[in-house]
Amino acid sequence: MGFVTKEPWLDDDEQKAWRSYLLMNRTLETHLERHLQREFGLSKSDFEILVNLSESESGRMRAFELSRSTQWEKSRLSHHLTRMEKRGLIRKEACESRYPEIAITEQGLAAIKECAPAHAARVREFFVDVFGPERLAVLGEVSDEIVATIGKHCDTDCPPEVRGTS
Amino acid sequence: MGFVTKEPWLDDDEQKAWRSYLLMNRTLETHLERHLQREFGLSKSDFEILVNLSESESGRMRAFELSRSTQWEKSRLSHHLTRMEKRGLIRKEACESRYPEIAITEQGLAAIKECAPAHAARVREFFVDVFGPERLAVLGEVSDEIVATIGKHCDTDCPPEVRGTS
DNA sequence: CCGCCTGGGTTGACACATCAACCAGACGCG
DNA sequence: CGCGTCTGGTTGATGTGTCAACCCAGGCGG
């Protein structure tokens, strides 16, 4: 064994960087997620929804808008919203246009107001500050390039939900 | 609304870079994962296990070794291994030492041999090549720094499973 | 010998994601 | 009108991850 992934596809330096990246990613993600979960009882998904709602003008959005800005598939969104409603973080309220609007509740607002600073502080400590301004700027650029590259590629041979929406 | 996450915690440039990174991450991950899943019927998790097994000397490892190298918690690993065994990708075989060894099967070996090149090619196309050698090297360094930083932080106040194992 | 801890591993309950199927209204077109 | 089809949204089945509890053997102090 030991030969399978060693084909000329990725040379040693590339392998190493890629694996460092993967590890960093997982480490950071699990750290942030566990922090949110344990200190505030919110999952990453909850957080994402609440951020979007709280950044909207009125604190209320249609589900498909959330679906657009989070890039979740609609069924995931639907399931998660019903769970969040059960926990009192959001409310689905009827409006004239047949489809319910998703509104953040007092409780949801309180939750995100409480946890956002702590979360941001962690992002700063473990990510932003370690990068430093110049390297961070570079990362931002490369990230956009990668998203664009994948988007371009998918225009031709992928199912619709991956394609760029911005 | 719109004020919650705008506290002085992350300034505009930082926000932007962070969100670009998050988006890139999600996009890349889902793209790679869907590719593996649709072309080869393997999940990212399956792939990770198979890579580890195929890179070992004998194609067989104890579960706790897998747990160390993947950094999964043991229950996740146990669940996933039983599922993989049901699908014929691995086998748990008894050995002298009370605990079973996890062995990759012919089928599992065939699966990873088939998909590894295609996967690596995609990593190259969408990640390695977009970065380019210099920026990629930088990313590798920063990644290691971040992992180290989180590791250091967790030595003092985190549950054991996050702490560095290398 | 006993009690107790620790390490490797499994199990069950539950939260979450994904897929395919479905529903209802709107829109277009013959 | 009748028909297909698109969009916004829900539902159920199934696969996956997480947490806490447990099991069992080995070691160790009494």
TrEMBL record, chains A, B:
Domain HTH marR-type residue range list: 35-135
Protein name: MarR family transcriptional regulator
Matches recorded under InterPro entries: HTH_MarR-typ, MarR/SlyA-like, WH-like_DNA-bd_sf, WH_DNA-bd_sf
Domain of life from the UniProt record: Bacteria
SUPFAM superfamilies tied to this protein: Winged helix' DNA-binding domain (SSF46785)
Any GO BP: response to stress
GO molecular function, one term: DNA-binding transcription factor activity
